[in-house]
Sequence to fold (594 residues):
Amino acid sequence: MNANSDDAGSAAHNGRRNPAGARKRQYMIAPAALGATRQTLVDRLNQLGNVEIVRSYAEREGISSPIAVVRLSDENAAALRRSSAGAFVIEPDWHLRAVSFAGRSFPPPMIAAMTAFSPGFRVTIQALSLSGEPVAHAAVQLVGERATAQGLTGNDGKADLTLFGELPETITDLFIRARSAHWGLWRHRPELRSDTANGFTLQSLSLPEAVDWGGKAMRFDQLPAECRGAGIKIALIDSGVATGHKQLTGITHGIDIRDGEQRSWSQDDIGHGTPCAGIIGATSDSAHGIRGYAPDSELHACRLPVDPRCSDLVTVLDYCLQTGIDVACLGFGCERGSAIVEQRIAAAKQQGVGLIAAAGNSAGPVLFPASLPHVMAVGAIGQRGSYLDDSPQAAEAEAAVTVARGLFVPPFACRGPELDVCAPAVAVIACQSPDGYAVCDGTSLAAAQVTALAALILAHHGDFKGSFARRDFQRVERLFQILKATAQPIGHPWQTGAGLPDAARALGVVSAQRPFTATLTAELAEMRNAIRQLTQIHVSPGEVNLFEPPRGPANVTQLPLSPAPWAFARERGADAGVQELKAAMMLAGLSGGR
Fold:
């Protein structure tokens, strides 16, 4: 492309040119005002020098502007901002990251310069099954007093790790997390030797005969059998879904965000989307398996690339609008916001697409886009006793904040005033690619459970067959209101939002809140820490974003809830009372049933 000397934003303006070899980055550019077309935007950018258009998105008339994804240098991006006088929104196209399968949060290693040249402590960890067979593809993490190291086991079950500046006696923790079929392992102050393979045995994973602790905590187990989410379309925005899994063969819709209609969406090499898909839509194949909470819904697997960016969410949102998606579940996020993506999310909400997003696992502020007031942000809780005593989940619980009898907020969970609800996110047993099961942690799993409940509400709640049947923003806000207003408050709102969603209350099966007692333990220091984290997001000089989107909890309607939202649901008298008591005992750790 040739630079146009009449364009004040060109690289040649005032004799300035992009230096040879100057680093280019990916940006998003959109007109600040409505009315422009994609062709107008592309033509305008083609007049500039040193702007490489990667792809573009059409406008949605009267709702959102066209978008161009480009590559240009930071200097040219800054010059275009100055010359356009606010006519364009120009943002870095931030990378997204998966927000599930969290490990224990540790500070970054602080290693003295002299120790970097030392040979370090080299050790071999071997993961073994109960029968003595090696466990491949297990994540191994060693934590020392000054450094950490991590790796994956090979086919021999072994992982070789080196920690510089550490000795065997300074290793504080060992974590092993199997990809599937086994529980993980946690050893505090492990005894390790450098001259041999240090073998550790992982316990086999047994599948629950009924819903797991999370399903009981959210009272999915109290819903009638016919409550299955039929007629609702769900988009799972994640790493793909292993549709070859015996419980996920019914998933037949999807898209690869970068490769269009290719069937690559039906694969999940990362293993991040498949557990979430199982939570939403796994079909029962026997008494021993995972139960999807909305198995009759139409699940669309929207596969993000291995290097996802904010602009990929625009493609997903366009797909949601084109296919009539009712609710979308997002398990990815980033620290910085995007006003351009925020506009597209708001436009999708205007047309009835509700977005439910994981708050994040970085132990900091709620990630974007969960932080937006157009999106329902889902945080994390765990339940004591739902895991083995020597598992990584036990380590999470040890460092956790207790919010109610039996329930805790894990240390990895993002928190802040933007949180809307929380859901089970520790020791969740879920499907795993290619055809197994795993113990999983993370707010992505929590978001999937809330998404499943949202689908059930849309399918079976009377409001969405009458006053809120039309696909518009009021439908989305009513859905969010029901989820939040029927949730059981636990802990401080900055840790758990409105609380734990209650499927039985949301769908009118029971009317009373759960009887367990919540103990508010969030101190003033916790709130001050959250405020400090919100104001300490690092921004380099080339990453200035003048159009940072608003943050806040999801907007909801302010109308009263219907007293009998589900026509064929009736209070079950004494039976309901017995179930309430059992649920309360289970959550308080007084019952062996899980």
About this structure: The first strand starts at residue 24 and ends at 31.
